[in-house]
Design goal:
The structure is a single chain. The protein has 334 residues and is of the alpha+beta class. A hairpin with a 2-residue loop joins strand 3 and strand 4. One of its GO terms (molecular function) is FAD binding.
């Protein structure tokens, strides 16, 4: 099974969350998925009450093989298996000893424009590279268009724009206008509601630190951004998290349902073996994704004259092929 926003296959049986009119255009394609729709679709596949919201972990204790989780709301949970999917600031990753995510030196803002009567954009991804910034736009469906803008802030142009939606919007529009971006791109930004315009620093886990990191320890492991926080330059962050879920489920299933070794093995030993296999499979994939995303973003957004020349005259095709190669990945079946 392959989960990807960029690539030739996107296998997911909830077709209502994808834009059906974004069909294949050659061997590779890009699909735009609204994250809230995807999360809702996944939640609906689970029994009621499976997911508990507002349950941030603040501390982890050990009691034999069990892990005692202290939550922000004062609740205490006892876990037989702990899978940390708690984001870039993961408490579970910190407990495992993974390196703290580093700053890429860039910021990103993104938004969603709504066209009640339909927009004029073709079902394809457009990207623009300016002096020290990148911008892109892709339609989600017949009425919604997603856009992003990444830049390297300076003392001169920061001025708190990332803390104020109105300032952020005007900052983006000013940058785009100065670079002679097509008017339809400007209209997308102008149409975005203030509550849809977000800005955040881009962080990543140093890829070399993942080579020897403890992705799993005993009955604990990490997945998603807790494992491989990366810059969004490949569009693979959410896709990689879905890959993690498939591989993790398969490894735990094989460990628990497989034949018992001579003398048998306790469930705890089987779980630990399954998590170790998951960590082995996902380690290099995570290193490759994080490293490639960082390099692609750095080269595409660089304002250095030499790098800009190489990018515009030689590296553009290389980066595109690398991007598509990273997306064209099959994580296997459940």
């Amino acid at each position: 099974m392959s989960f990807c926003f960029h690539g030739d296959v996107l296998n997911f049986n909830r077709k209502d969350i994808f834009a059906p009119w974004l069909g294949c255009r050659g061997p590779n394609e890009m699909r735009c998925v609204r994250r809230d729709w995807l999360l809702r679709a996944l939640e609906e596949e689970l029994p009621k009450g499976t997911i508990r919201y507002s349950s941030k972990i603040v501390a982890i204790e050990e009691d034999g093989n069990a892990k005692i989780l202290h939550l922000a709301d004062g609740a205490i949970l006892r876990a037989k298996v702990l899978i940390g999917c708690d984001g870039v600031n993961s408490v579970v990753a910190k407990w495992l000893g993974l390196a703290k995510p580093s700053s890429s030196g860039r910021l990103a803002t993104r938004g969603l424009a709504h066209y009640p009567d339909g927009h004029v954009f073709e079902p394809r991804f457009q990207m623009f590279v300016g002096h020290g910034f990148r911008a892109g736009v892709i339609p989600c469906n017949e009425t919604d268009v997603y856009w992003f803008f990444t830049w390297s802030p300076s003392e001169h142009d920061s001025n708190g724009v990332d803390q104020n939606a109105a300032k952020m919007k005007q900052f983006v529009l000013a940058k785009l206008r100065s670079s002679k971006i097509p008017p339809e791109m400007l209209e997308v930004v102008e149409r975005s509601e203030m509550n849809d315009v977000l800005a955040a620093p881009l962080r990543f886990r140093p890829p070399l630190s993942l080579l020897l990191a403890s992705i799993s320890k005993g009955n604990v492991c990490v997945a998603g951004d807790a494992l491989h926080p990366m810059t969004p330059d490949l569009g693979q962050g959410g896709c990689a998290a879905l890959e993690d879920g498939v591989v993790l489920a398969r490894c735990l299933g094989d460990a628990l349902l497989g034949e018992s070794p001579a003398g048998g093995a306790a469930d705890s030993e089987r779980i630990e073996a399954g998590l170790r296999e998951y960590a082995r499979i996902r380690r290099w994939r995570s290193v490759e994704l994080v490293g490639t995303a960082y390099v692609v973003g750095f080269v595409q957004q660089s304002n250095n004259a030499v790098i800009s020349f190489l990018r515009d005259n030689w590296l553009a095709g290389v980066l595109t092929r690398r991007l598509l190669k990273m997306a064209d990945y099959d994580c296997g079946a459940l």
